[in-house]
């Protein structure tokens, strides 16, 4: 029987387990537990431990309690040491193997999500000679609330601390700290763009991959107003001492209560919600996040970092389908006008969209305004910097989904179609499509080239992932229907 893998880090030894040809290490802490005096502090380095540390179970998660039914099964794990990483490496990798590294950041709208998901297990990457590190970070108000007397963007600081851990420790698992690709989906993809523009993250990765990026860039004014609402609902002063005086569960409840009226007001001003987003997420603080990521990228931030970026074709259409009975009665041009799209752009958008019917067009509009326009804007502002675009166009055969929805592409990138919950939203997904997408991610992490032409302002090309899979499915002007919104 093969011995359990052992890695020698600078803080102490960690003992994982072997799963086939993969060495798995779960729940390795990269910072001290953010509790007590450290609850609203920047992440604090760990003290060394003696002997071996067991790394055979997922570590505690920042997500607490039952998250309910989500597209990606992301369990909550109780405990205090929530700042931890999971590492997946080839079982035979030597410490001096210098293998490429993929660091994955989970999504969840900056308020939920967990690295303790089998969807993120890196066995297929390990099979192909890539080490995967899945990181945790503080979410919700504890991670991103703007608190007087506390450092801002604690969740982003956690992500940076995890990347510093990779820089300092990944050789113990066979990785090369000079060949790190940071990647993430949804809020994780937005985090990737934020990290690309943060001076604190400079030099910690050499390539990036933003999957369906939802940018978080809350103004200090909006973040401060939201913190005041949370404090009022929790019955405390809106400063560090006040928030620290009540347990986390009470702050989480106050956070949810404070978000509710924001969403109610947004129903009468959906255009504002689409433009500004929710008031909880990375804050433009002039320090960790000096500027809005798109503004910083337009000024050549991370222009030397190759980037793969893209989205699914219909991130949110499955949500609008729930209101099909009502939406079918709404004239689409009128609905788009209410949503803030002026006449000239509205006509151009309706002329270009491939979607038909109120449900599809309005769901597509939310998709395009929130996610796909970010993809196109990023490509444009990066100019000549190496940027590869893609579209995930494969529509789920599950009747309740029926489109290329949010999260559907994640198990394809990880080549993990047999993970629990995949069949729920993907039915029986095509393995050849997963092989192509995963192969592109491997090629990018290893060779800095996913296998199709880069974006340029003339051809505006993107790789289209669909079934039946084709290795040559490159489309010119692939995001043309989004252009009127940018």
TrEMBL record:
Enzyme class: hydrolase
Sorted UniProt keywords: Hydrolase
SUPFAM superfamilies from the UniProt entry: alpha/beta-Hydrolases (SSF53474)
Gene3D superfamilies xrefs: alpha/beta hydrolase
Origin superkingdom: Bacteria
Database matches in Pfam families: COesterase (PF00135)
GO molecular function: hydrolase activity
UniProt keyword Hydrolase present: yes
EC number: 3.1.1.-
Domain Carboxylesterase type B: 5-456
PANTHER family per the UniProt record, alphabetical: CARBOXYLESTERASE (PTHR11559)
Family: Belongs to the type-B carboxylesterase/lipase family.
Protein name: Carboxylic ester hydrolase
Species this chain originates from: Microbacterium testaceum (Aureobacterium testaceum)
Lineage summary: Bacteria, Bacillati, Actinomycetota, Actinomycetes, Micrococcales
């Amino acid at each position: 029987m093969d011995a359990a893998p052992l890695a020698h880090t600078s803080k102490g030894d960690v003992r994982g387990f072997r799963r086939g040809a993969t060495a798995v290490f779960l729940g390795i802490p990269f910072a001290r537990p953010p509790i007590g005096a450290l609850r609203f502090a920047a992440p604090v380095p760990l003290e060394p431990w003696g002997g071996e540390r067991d790394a055979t179970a997922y570590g505690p998660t920042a997500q607490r309690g039952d998250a309910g039914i989500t597209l990606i099964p992301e369990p909550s794990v109780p405990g205090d040491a929530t700042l931890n990483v999971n590492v997946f490496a080839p079982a035979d990798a030597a410490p001096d193997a210098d293998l490429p590294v993929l660091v994955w950041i989970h999504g969840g709208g900056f308020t939920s999500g967990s690295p303790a998901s089998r969807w993120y297990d890196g066995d297929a990457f390990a099979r192909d000679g890539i080490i995967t590190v899945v990181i945790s970070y503080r979410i919700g108000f504890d991670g991103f609330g703007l608190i007087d007397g506390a450092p801002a963007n604690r969740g982003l600081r956690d992500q940076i601390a995890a990347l510093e851990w990779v820089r300092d420790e990944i050789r113990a698992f066979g990785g090369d700290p000079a060949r790190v690709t940071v990647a993430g989906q949804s809020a994780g993809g937005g985090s990737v763009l934020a990290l690309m523009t943060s001076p604190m993250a400079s030099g910690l990765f050499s390539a990036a991959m933003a999957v369906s990026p939802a940018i978080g860039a809350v103004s200090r004014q909006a973040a401060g107003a939201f913190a005041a609402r949370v404090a009022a609902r929790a019955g405390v002063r809106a400063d560090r001492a006040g928030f620290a005086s009540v347990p986390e569960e009470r702050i989480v409840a106050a956070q949810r209560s404070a978000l509710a009226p924001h969403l109610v007001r947004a129903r009468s001003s959906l255009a504002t919600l689409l433009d500004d987003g929710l008031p909880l997420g990375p804050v433009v603080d002039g320090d960790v996040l000096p500027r809005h990521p798109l503004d910083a990228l337009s000024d050549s931030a991370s222009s030397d970092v190759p980037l793969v970026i893209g989205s699914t074709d219909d991130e949110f259409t499955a949500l609008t389908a729930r209101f099909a009975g009502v939406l079918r009665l709404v004239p689409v041009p009128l609905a788009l006008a209410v949503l803030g799209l002026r006449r000239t752009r509205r006509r151009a958008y309706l002329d270009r969209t491939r979607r038909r019917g109120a449900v599809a067009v309005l769901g597509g509009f939310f998709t395009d305004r929130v996610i796909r326009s970010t993809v196109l804007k990023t490509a444009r502002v990066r100019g000549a910097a190496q940027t590869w675009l893609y579209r995930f166009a494969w529509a789920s055969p599950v009747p309740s989904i029926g489109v290329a929805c949010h999260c559907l592409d994640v198990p394809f990138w990880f080549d993990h179609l047999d993970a629990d919950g995949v069949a729920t939203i993907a039915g029986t997904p095509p393995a050849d499509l997963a092989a192509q997408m995963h192969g592109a991610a491997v090629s990018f992490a290893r060779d800095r080239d996913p296998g199709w032409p880069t974006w340029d302002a003339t051809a505006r090309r993107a790789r289209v992932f669909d079934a039946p899979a084709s290795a040559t499915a490159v489309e010119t002007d692939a995001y043309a229907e989004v252009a009127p919104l940018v």
